[in-house]
Every structure is written in C-alpha cells, then in structure tokens.
C-alpha cells in the first residue's frame, strides 16, 4: 500500500519534505479483536509537527520509519475472528487509542489513561496510509449523514475540544463568559460545542484574521485580535472581572499568562495546547481560588456524543482536503498558518 512515511526528526522544521510517499507492507490482523480500516480521511494535526520536531521524544520511544496520523475515519476492510458487530464496508470513525479493556481505567471508560494501549500515529503506525490497523473497541459506526473524510479530525481535534468545552459548559450559566484562546483547528470546534451546550457569551481571542472570521461564523459573540491589547479588551468586555471559564487551545508563548489573567476569581482555566509553562505564585492560587484543568483528548463515549452533535448539524468541521501524496504540502501549510480549520489527507 501507499503511505507518507517519516524517516527522522527535523527539529527546526526546515526540510522541504518531512515525509516520503512510498510503498509499505499492508497492516495485518495480529489479535482476534483487531480491525483493518481503509482510510477515507486522516487529519493533519499540529501534534504531527511536534512529532517531526522531536517534542514527543521524552514521552514516546518512536522507531523509524514511522507512519503518522492519529485522526482517522474510513471503512471496515477486515476484522479479527472475535469481532462480530462489524463487517466490511461499514463507515466508521476511530477513537485514537487502541485499548485492551482489561485495566481499571478501561473499565471506567477512562481510555486515555489505559495501562495497556497503543496510539496509532504516535507510538505505532497511523493513518497517513491507505490502510490502518486498530482495535474493535476503538470503532464507532458513522450515521449515513457523515462521510469519513468530513469527520476524521474529530477523533483528536474535535474530541479534545469537545472534552474541554463539555467540562466548561457544566458550570457556565446564562450571562456568564467563556473565553476561547485560539480559533484554529480545535478552537472553531470548541466554540460550536459551547454554543450547543450552554448559554454563556463566547469571546474568541486569536492573532489571525482568518481564524477570527471563522470563529464568528461558528457562533462566537465577540472576536478579539491578539495584538498585545487582548487582555485589556477581554477585561473590558467582562466588566473588569474576567471570564468564568477560559479554554486555552494555544498553551504556549504569552497565551498561558494572559489566559490565567483573563480567568476571574473562582473561575476555571482549561489548558489544552502545550509547549509553554504555567507559573503562578501559590498565594495567588489561594486568594483567587482559580482552578486549572488539564485536558488529554477524550473518551470513547465522548466521541459518540460528539458524533451525535455532528449528525444534528450542530458541530461542523472546516476542512481543507489534500491527497495522501500531498502530505508534505499539508504539513507545511499547517506549519505556516495557511490552513483554515483542519487539513485532511485522502488516499
């Protein structure tokens, strides 16, 4: 089969080609619960750029050659002997993690903290290819209204945004404020989830005019340009008190400090993007009683919930399609901020 293959790190992201389009062996059924999916769409994520940079080296023992791609949807091609609820041709979306189902975290539905797991595209071969091996526990059948190429990025970008926005929506009341920092691939989804699940007023902060326009199309009430004055503008909009919830999809640079400053006393700061550091004096934590919440993708049930919102037309993805052999163009466009929403590779 054809795949876009990573053969080594590029710490400065300066190479003209990050991956090589080449022939590789097809994945095989290894376990009775394995499933082979024919890829209909594979999302291109900023995490893929971080993998290329080597940011994940401390977390993952990556072996080259490696096939990236952890946002996958398509059609069932083959199933293991123990899989009875799926058949060839079923349109499906894949939860990003392959789990055994045996550990306590799995039994509680806390997929991302499973003791026995594989993460296609991260620590094993992913969906930048024609075929993907995953597990039956990871598969969700798609309704007829949703095509694999249109929803593939929901398996990470959508699921991560959904999990954070769902947490925030549980305590946001009508008339209160939610700030979303970053209206790109994740942020434009988070806005729609907030709009679907609560009545808070939504303020979006981004430095790109393209992203701000997309945010307003997705339901943001206020669009604030990140030009150095964004903290003052958010405080003005919130009456000088800050927002009850701030969801930070950037998580680096000065976004972290400003995000915490935008969070009102007793409010919640949800950190999703990574690369930066949280530095706050303990006395400020005590006197402000702010809550800092980390977010790591999401659970299988949450992906089902997100697909329900997508099926109802309440959450839609802004996507730009690339052929699989255009993976380098997609990665470079993402790196240089040229992608509106999410990039999707289609074999």
Describe this structure in words.
By secondary structure, the chain is α/β, with parallel strands linked by helices. It folds into two domains: 2-156 and 298-346, Quinone Oxidoreductase, Chain A, domain 1; 158-294, NAD(P)-binding Rossmann-like Domain (Rossmann fold, 3-Layer(aba) Sandwich). It is 27% helix and 26% strand. The chain is built from eleven helices and 18 strands. The chain has helices at residues 46-53, 104-107, 148-151, 157-169, 187-197, 209-217, 230-237, 255-262, 282-288, 300-311, 327-335; strands at residues 2-6, 19-23, 34-44, 66-67, 72-79, 91-94, 98-99, 117-118, 131-135, 139-141, 177-181, 201-206, 222-225, 243-248, 263-271, 291-294, 319-323, 342-346. Strands 3, 5, 6, 9, 10, 17 and 18 form a seven-stranded mixed beta sheet that branches. A six-stranded parallel beta sheet has the order 13-12-11-14-15-16, sandwiched between helices. Strands 2-1-4 form a three-stranded antiparallel beta sheet, with no helix packed on it. Strand 12, helix 6 (209-217) and strand 13 form a beta-alpha-beta unit. Helix 7 (230-237) packs parallel to helix 8. Its cofactor is Zn(2+). Keywords: Metal-binding, Oxidoreductase, Zinc.
């Amino acid at each position: 089969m054809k795949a876009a293959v990573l053969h080594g790190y590029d710490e400065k992201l300066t190479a003209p080609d990050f991956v090589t389009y080449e022939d590789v062996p097809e994945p095989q059924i290894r376990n009775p619960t394995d499933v082979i999916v024919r890829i209909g769409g594979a999302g291109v994520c900023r995490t893929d750029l971080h993998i290329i940079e080597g940011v994940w080296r401390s977390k993952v023992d990556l072996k080259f050659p490696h096939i990236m791609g952890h946002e996958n949807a398509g059609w069932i091609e083959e199933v293991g002997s123990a899989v009875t609820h799926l058949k060839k041709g079923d349109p499906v979306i894949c939860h990003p993690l392959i789990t055994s189902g045996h550990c306590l975290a799995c039994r509680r539905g806390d997929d991302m903290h499973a003791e026995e797991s594989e993460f296609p595209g991260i620590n094993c071969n992913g969906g930048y290819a024609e075929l993907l091996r995953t597990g039956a526990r990871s598969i969700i059948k798609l309704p007829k209204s949703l095509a694999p190429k249109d929803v593939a990025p929901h398996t990470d970008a959508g699921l991560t945004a959904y999990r954070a926005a769902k947490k925030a929506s549980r305590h946001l009341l009508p008339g209160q404020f939610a700030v979303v920092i970053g209206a790109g691939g994740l942020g434009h989804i988070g806005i729609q989830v907030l709009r679907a699940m609560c009545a808070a007023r939504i303020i979006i902060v981004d430095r790109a005019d393209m992203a701000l326009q997309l945010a307003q199309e997705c339901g943001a009430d206020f669009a604030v340009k990140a030009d150095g004055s964004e903290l003052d503008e958010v405080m003005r909009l919130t009456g000088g008190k800050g927002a009850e919830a701030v969801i930070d999809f950037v998580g680096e640079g000065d976004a972290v400090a400003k995000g915490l400053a935008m969070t009102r006393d007793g409010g919640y700061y949800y950190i999703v993007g990574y690369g930066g550091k949280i530095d706050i004096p303990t006395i400020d934590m005590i006197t402000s009683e702010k809550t800092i919440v980390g977010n790591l993708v999401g659970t299988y049930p949450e992906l089902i919930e997100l697909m329900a919102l997508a099926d109802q037309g309440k959450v839609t993805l802004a996507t730009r399609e690339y052929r699989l052999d255009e993976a380098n163009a997609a990665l470079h466009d993402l790196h240089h901020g040229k992608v509106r929403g999410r990039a999707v590779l289609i074999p």
